[in-house]
Amino acid sequence: MKELNRRLFLKSSLAAGAVTGTGLLLPKAVLAKWPANAFHSSTPDEALEKLLGNAHPVESGAIKIKAPDIAENGAVVPVSVTSGISGTESISILSTGNPTPLLFSAKLGPGAKGFVSTRIKMAKTGKVVAVVKANGKVYQASKAVKVTIGGCGG
Amino acid sequence: MAKSSIKIRAKEKGGVVTLKTLITHPMESGLRKNKKTGKLIPAHFIEEVTCEANGKKVFVAEMSGGVSKNPYLSFKFTGAHKGDEVKLSWVDNQGGSDSATAKIR
To answer: Which of A80, A112, A121 faces B77 most closely, judged by CB atoms?
Structure first.
C-alpha cells in the first residue's frame, strides 16, 4: 500500500512537471517555424486542427469582425478583427471559399492588444472566419462576404 | 541605399501604441497562371512579420499567399512610449527578408 502511494506521488508530480514544462516552452512556441501544413490545408477544419489542435472552436460574441458585406475586388478585402476576450494569445483569419482557407495568423506577445487589421484575398463569396486562442481555449466568429470579382457594384 | 520595402507609422495615445505598416511585396499565392504562357507563377509571399518594441517581441504575424499584394497590417500594443523605437522585419518563402525601424510618435 505504501509502495502504491509512492508510485502515485511520483506519477502526479511528473504530470505537474510536464504542465509547468509546457508553460516554460511557450515563448519558444512563439518563435516556431512557419506552420506550412496548416497553411497548405484545403479545408478550414483541417487548417485549424493543424494550427491550434482544435477544429471546432466555440462561437463567441466577444470577437468582432469588420469586413465589407460586398467586396467588389476579391484581391483586396480589408478585414479587422477585435477580440474582447482577455488573455488573447493568437488571432487567425480564414476565408472559407479559398483553396487554402488559412490566410493569416498573428501571435500576440506581452502587451499586444486583441486587435489586428489586414487585407486578404478572397477567391469567391464565402465566410471570413476569425479564430481566437485565449487561455488554452479556441473561439471563433464569422462574417459572410459577397465577392464580385472584377465586377462593378453587386 | 535601396528604398526600404517597409513603411511604418506608430503612434502612441493614452498608453496604447497603434502601429500601421505597408510592405511592398508581390504576395504570389502560387496558384495564379501567367496569362501569356499558361504556366503557374511560382509562389512568392511573406511568411512571417515580426515586430519588436524596445527589443521585446510584441507581435508575430504568419501569412500565406492569401494575404493581398503589398500587405497592410495594423495592430495595437502597450508597454512602449513616444520616442521608443519599433523594429519590423519580414521573411518570405524564397528566403528574402527586410527590416526597418521607426520611432513611436
So the answer is: A112
Q: The complex's ipTM?
A: 0.90
- Do B98 and B6 meet the contact criterion of CB atoms below 8 Å apart? yes
**In b/e form, how buried is each residue of B58-95, taking b as 16+ CB within 10 angstroms?**
bbbbbbbbbbbbebbbebbbbbbeeeeebbbebbbbee
pLDDT digits (tens, 9 = 90+) for A40-63: 988 999 999 999 988 789 999 999
B67 touches chain A (CB under 8 A): yes
Query: Do residue A41 and residue A23 come from a single domain?
Result: no
Asked whether residue A130 carries a pLDDT value surpassing 90, the answer given is yes
Domains defined for chain B, CATH in brackets: 6-31+41-103 (2.60.40.10)
DSSP calls for A36-57: HHHHT-SSHHHHHHHHHS-S-P
Chain A hits for B57, CB-CB cut-off 8 Å, are 30, 109
Q: Is residue A99 part of a domain?
A: yes
- Residue of chain B whose Cα is closest to the Cα of A98: B66
Instruction: Indicate whether A2 and A16 sit together in one domain.
Output: yes
Q: Which residue range is the domain that position A21 belongs to?
A: 1-32
Does A139 reside within a domain?
Answer: yes
Q: With bands split at pLDDT 50, 70 and 90, how would you rate the model's confidence at A21?
A: very low
**Is A153 part of any domain?**
no
Residues A22 and A95 in one domain: no
B34 near A CB under 8 A: no
